[in-house]
Structure formats: structure tokens, C-alpha cells
UniProtKB/TrEMBL annotation:
<dbReference type="InterPro" id="IPR001753">
    <property type="entry name" value="Enoyl-CoA_hydra/iso"/>
</dbReference>
<dbReference type="GO" id="GO:0004165">
    <property type="term" value="F:delta(3)-delta(2)-enoyl-CoA isomerase activity"/>
</dbReference>
<comment type="pathway">
    <text>Lipid metabolism; fatty acid beta-oxidation.</text>
</comment>
<protein>
    <recommendedName>
        <fullName>Delta(3)-Delta(2)-enoyl-CoA isomerase</fullName>
        <ecNumber>5.3.3.8</ecNumber>
    </recommendedName>
</protein>
<dbReference type="GO" id="GO:0005777">
    <property type="term" value="C:peroxisome"/>
</dbReference>
<comment type="similarity">
    <text>Belongs to the enoyl-CoA hydratase/isomerase family.</text>
</comment>
<dbReference type="Pfam" id="PF00378">
    <property type="entry name" value="ECH_1"/>
</dbReference>
<keyword id="KW-0443">Lipid metabolism</keyword>
<dbReference type="InterPro" id="IPR029045">
    <property type="entry name" value="ClpP/crotonase-like_dom_sf"/>
</dbReference>
<dbReference type="GO" id="GO:0006635">
    <property type="term" value="P:fatty acid beta-oxidation"/>
</dbReference>
């Protein structure tokens, strides 16, 4: 599950516990509730930082829950349910009226990788943890919004190939070189501290949240189109 705490202008969304933070229906619902709460409390200068306890940021969908259905058709139905339920999580992050930062201090795989990538800024550890899209190794195809997000957020075709088609396990410094993450840090504390520094810097700008969200949506038209998000024109003069 997850918690949401507000400290000044910074919201801290934390995946709690020391497990793999698998994205079960209950965890997905908890994330959506946290995003809704942050949105309802947002003011100019708000920033969201997402992190997690333990060695995992998130190891993706709860495949054990899917397999517990007892049949292939039941497992497939449960997996499709998680895919459909997670779509609003990506949409919420792309439409949230504030800057968002993923502070990834452990492994991020499959949908957990996508969760981090859906933020505006992506920071991770260099000494521990990998990024890994496991679908090609598991024999699963990608949902349309997964590949649209990858095309929108990872500029290099060769990097996208290695992530999606090769199932490459990527550590922090390599992720920076590939243009996937913004920076890599030496410890869990270092990642969070860097995220807080960045969040405080962004908060000082006091941007209008609605304008910020609409600019974000216009920046990623492909994935927003797949997710059903449409950009609109907003004028909110804060400085003349």
C-alpha cells in the first residue's frame, strides 16, 4: 500500500513495507486515492515526490494474484484487469497539477518501471537496484500505453530497443547514459535527499498547477492520446 504526507509544499507518496510493492488492485486503488488527495490539496508551488521502502521500488503487477485464479483464462482476465486499472495511474501522473519526481531507491521492473517513468523527473541509486522491463522474458506483450510512454519518455531508439526488446537490466549510471533517468546517487538517502533538493527548487517557482499540467500534456501528445487525455488552452497570468 502507500501513504501520502505533506511537508510544506512537498507531497511524499511512499510505497510502504519491505516487500516487492507489487501493483495489485488494492495497491493501484491506493495510488489513485493518493493522487486524488494530492490534487485536491495542491497549491501553486506544490511538488510530488514518490519513493518506496525496502529493496524494491516496485516489481510490477501482482502476477501471483493473477495465477491464483486457478485457470489460464482466469489468470489472463486478472492480468487484463490490472493492466486496465493501472491505466488511470499513468493518466493521473500526466495530468497532476504539480511537478512530479520519482526517487527510485531499489529495483523497478515492468509496471513499476513505468510508474517511475511516468513522473517528470526520475532519480535512482547507482549502487543498488536495476530497471527492467521483464515482459519479453515472461512471454507477455506490452499494453499500448506502456509503449507509448516509452516512446514519449526515452528519446533514443536503441535505448528503447534495449529496454523493451532485449529486456536489459539497467543500473543507475547506465540509465543516466541512456537518457532514461536524470541522475544516479550513491545510497537510498542520497536519492531522497536529491529529490527533496530538486522538489524545493521547483516549489520556489510557484507555477500555476493547471498551466503546468496542460504544458505537460502538450509535451507528450502520443501517450496522452492513448490515455484519453486532451490538452486545453489555459491562460493564468501570474507575472506581467
Amino acid at each position: 500500500m502507500c501513504t501520502l504526507q505533506k511537508r510544506g509544499n512537498l507531497f511524499f507518496l511512499t510505497l510502504t513495507g519491505d516487500d516487492e510493492h507489487r501493483l495489485s488492485p488494492a495497491v493501484i486503488d491506493s495510488l489513485l486515492s493518493a493522487f486524488s488527495e494530492a490534487k485536491s490539496q495542491a497549491v501553486s508551488g506544490s511538488v510530488l515526490i514518490t519513493t518506496a521502502h525496502g529493496k524494491f521500488f516496485s516489481n510490477g503487477f501482482d502476477l501471483a494474484w493473477a495465477q491464483d485464479a486457478g485457470s489460464f483464462s482466469g489468470a489472463r482476465e486478472r492480468l487484463h484487469h490490472m493492466v486496465d486499472s493501472f491505466r488511470p495511474v499513468a493518466a493521473a501522473l500526466l495530468s497532476l497539477p504539480m511537478p512530479t519526481i520519482a526517487a527510485v531507491s531499489g529495483h523497478a521492473a515492468a509496471a513499476g518501471f513505468l510508474l517511475a517513468l511516468s513522473h517528470d523527473y526520475f532519480l535512482m541509486r547507482r549502487d543498488r537496484g536495476v530497471l527492467y522491463m521483464s515482459e519479453v522474458d515472461l512471454g507477455l506483450t506490452f499494453p499500448d500505453y506502456f509503449t507509448a510512454m516509452m516512446r514519449s519518455k526515452i528519446g533514443s531508439p536503441s535505448a528503447r530497443r534495449d529496454v523493451l526488446h532485449r529486456g536489459m537490466k539497467i543500473k543507475g549510471d547506465e540509465a543516466v547514459r541512456m537518457g532514461i533517468v536524470d541522475s544516479a546517487h550513491d545510497s537510498e538517502e542520497g536519492v531522497v535527499e536529491a529529490a527533496v533538493r530538486l522538489g524545493e527548487h521547483l516549489a520556489q517557482r510557484k507555477w500555476n498547477g493547471e498551466v503546468y499540467a496542460e504544458i505537460r500534456k502538450s509535451l507528450y501528445p502520443e501517450v496522452c492520446g492513448v490515455l484519453g487525455l486532451s490538452a486545453k488552452s489555459v491562460v493564468a497570468f501570474s507575472k506581467l
